[in-house]
Amino acid sequence: MRPSWLRGGRTQTRGTTASCEINQLMIIVKCFNNNGRLTGAQRFVRCFSKFDYQEFEEEIRQRRQKSKNEQKKTFPDQDEQSQDSSSGSSNSYSNGEKASVITLPQNIARDLTLLNVPKYVSREDLKKQYHKLAKIYHPDVMQKHEYSENQRLKMEERFKEFNQAYERLVKWVGERDKTLDDDLLKGLRPGVKVNREDGSVTYTIGKLQLEGKRSTLDRQQLLLEMIEDDLNLKEPVNFKRYLIGIWLLFGAYVFYKDFKSYYAHLSTPLENVDYTQSYFKLIQL
């Protein structure tokens, strides 16, 4: 049986034990890369010997380079694509190019509000929303229902507004998506990885990674970051609503004052009144 100092028992000092554990971890990693095994004697010797960190780093670097070379031989096309994307990204940054910012004009913001769609809406969702409104306001649909002439004119005018807004939004969404795709291909957006295999694209935002030709959540987040203005449009002031509210508050205040004075008047006793005689007179009547 080995003595306790060979087994790393309690007789070792705290500093020696800590250095022993660190060296053991480093040696295990190194020998794991070499596909070798350690014996108890080797572990003991390495614990108290000076570990050559430069040699360890050099060996790790050589192994990484070797694995990269093997990967190039196995997947040459993938390596070329990664080099193209990385070179394109570095060239874009070196040329001073910046990610695009899409402005949101007031008319487009009103159109988005009119059709009740967000600014990151896709073409498919925009088309669905337009068809949903057309089923209600289209002139051919109105003929199947009994509407007055005034209602028909208002609904036809409303449908024209929807149609014009839809045409403007289709054009704006196309330009918006083209700008985003160009930025992704040029590598102007850090945190977004473009994988050109099979035409697929991988968007990476923080810990979120989604793959596909048209992903949804990550693309929405990118569009929210790209579009400069927000849809915080101020509604027109409705003075009628404010006047009604003020009138209700004033009426409640007047009612409270009248009720308070009336209650105080009831609680005040009357002078020179014999309540007993008045009570018996009422009974006799």
TrEMBL record:
Segments forming domain J: 110-185
- The residue ranges flagged as biased composition, category Basic and acidic residues, are 62-76
* Compositional bias per record (Low complexity), positions renumbered to this chain: 83-97
Q: Which InterPro entries match?
A: DnaJ_domain, J_dom_sf
Q: Which Gene3D superfamilies match?
A: DnaJ domain (1.10.287.110)
UniProt-annotated stretches for the region Disordered = 62-97
Pfam families linked: DnaJ
Name the chain's protein: J domain-containing protein
